[in-house]
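Support request, please re-run this one:
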Amino acid sequence: MSAGFFSRFIRPKPHIVESPSPPSITHGAGMNIPEYKNKPYFIVGSVEMGNTTTKCILTGVNLDTGMSYVINKTVSMSRDIRPPKPGETIFGATLDGTELTREAVTELVRDTLLKCHRDAHLDIKNELDFVVRSTGVVAEMDSPDQVGDFVISLANGCLVAGVPPRKMTPPMSKENQSQKLQPYSFADKVVFVGAVAGVIPPVGSTGVEMVANEMEGELAMAGIKEGAKWTPVDFRNPCVTIDFGTTLDGRITSDVAPDAENPFAKTVGNFCGLAGAIPDAIVRGTGLVHERTGTALDIFGEHSITGGLFSGSNRRIVDDLVNRCHEHIDIRIVPPERDRFGRVPVNARVAYESGVAMIGCDCGVNSSDLPKLIEIGAEIHKTHSLATLNEVVDRVCTRMALRLIDVAIEEGLVLKNSSIGFTGRAAISGRKPEYILEGITERNLFDKPNDHVVFVDDGLARGAALMGRCMNSLGKPKNPIGGVRGGPCIMSRRIKIGK
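Re-run finished. Output below.
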């Protein structure tokens, strides 16, 4: 039997990073104390309210090694937020229509933050070093005022939970940092200029954000770079980072010449639109989840699966169903005249004028064809098995990811030294990582594709920890995240230009 026959079953395993717990230190028989209680750790709380889940994730960065660990995670469904009370003003809603008020968001954030710290036996005022807030719900907002209300609600939730205001903004100087952080800080040598993970955020010709969930894309990029530290992949600039949460976000960064005076990469591409909302629509048609707020997460979970085989006899059926779904999925450069794509507010004209490729994913026009996917989901449930539904969902999401990459390739934004990273439930659950890596391999972008591709869980939380480090100038020159693939740390160049 030929070697080629077996090669079909022996494929490289994708690099899938799942959040490791921090090490413990043993003190006598049966006494295990978490390392972050004894050693210098930078503890960051990431508070994120998305369209599907609301999370508080505590990450601890070992300041001696630069490696990040997840200390605790508290997750609730955003659909379970309490309903508006009489007299409260509804300022917006999640993608599934769950109504939001300032007071309700503040309470949800407070409760989530307190529970996360209580379960981890950590004191918010004394042991938490920094908090980063983010949201994907702004994708459904209609005006800057609504976005402002949401951001204020997130901040108020943190304040009510007992987070000191100074732990939510960058320190003015090294002297303003805690004694624990000062030996590891470069705040007296470099200035924080807004660059996170060695990348400058996009600035439009009007200074207006190009896409509503810009911060999510920044955090996801930073988080994937941090997560890749647990793999052999050198995931530094240039890179393509895609977050497949309920909505789509992410960034494409530029290469940087070794002798360039400015060591930071530029943001040359943005992703926006729908992501997990598409498989959610398919499963809502089955009747197995709530018809308005149900998600694929409710049926299939968020963990990845590798290995195993799907019945070849069903492959043609699956391919036909995937093709029918993708007839309604629109993936392309967002036209300059659009002010929304996949229901996400965008400023596509500013992006176009600034030379930033805005790559969007929609279903019909602003999700108008999601009901078509619900119908396909109903058909699958009626005539096929749950295994077929699972395979269709994985294949639909895989093709979405590969179509996004194809657009980036057409725009000349995927280079030979680029790395590609994914986070978010609609890209890292099930067999999607395996299928996506297979598709990237078929495109012959890299000599060794598995050395350029990573899948990272909790990208936003990891990114929040990294953003906190960047704001506090807590770099690790011997284990750098900034700079280009294969290159040195950029700290010395940053110090030079700072002078």
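The mean pLDDT is 89. The CA atoms of residues 336 and 474 lie 39 Å apart.
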